[in-house]
């Protein structure tokens, strides 16, 4: 019973408070000379002294970036021309002449922009392109498309013509270490069997392991240079002992221990690996 009486008193108090607010509002309208039916448009103008301004400040300016002609991810003949000019200035290595605007091309562009005192945007806008053309000459056909090396009267894959490449020919069963179109080393290799074929295509060295042991096959893979998943170029004692009587599980086996020791120290992560058929 007491709880009910308390609720009733609270409700009554709310009604009284609401009436008080309404009364005060009416009194305010009456004091200003406005009736409840009048619209704001008919109200008397408010004195400027009654207005308060709120300070608003903009710090700095929004940057306006120039339009990109070629940027990271672009590809095609025009990108190759940009790369060839950067190679002329020795800002880009020949290995990255590949029609593809990637990380290395972006870095070279930024270096050029810095050298010219322009914003290092990392992409080629019209101003960068104009300055790059002024600082270089028109690339020759040979600069744009270097001829593939010729070994024993036969041309290697054209992708082996620039930069550093492990050029691996499945037809002749040869691996050639090629630098800027010159064959530095050549040796015999063997490949995977039909069910575990060595993949063909253009790859790059992802990582190296001098004393690697395969967890999958529990076999030694010394001087391993991985280029496609678990497939790697590495020394094989089985290949040294049995020759082409056996096969790998997909890797490129080398049987000359002295040569692959030397090769392992020359090859860097990121170097090209081209596996093809001539």
TrEMBL record:
Keywords: Cell shape, Cell wall biogenesis/degradation, Hydrolase, Peptidoglycan synthesis, Transferase. SUPFAM superfamilies: L,D-transpeptidase catalytic domain-like, PGBD-like. Residues 164-276 form the L,D-TPase catalytic domain. Pathway: Cell wall biogenesis; peptidoglycan biosynthesis. Pfam families: PG_binding_1, YkuD. The active site is at residues 234, 251. One of its GO terms (molecular function) is transferase activity. The keyword Transferase applies. GO terms for biological process: cell wall organization; peptidoglycan-protein cross-linking; regulation of cell shape. GO terms for cellular component: extracellular region. This is Peptidoglycan hydrolase-like protein with peptidoglycan-binding domain.
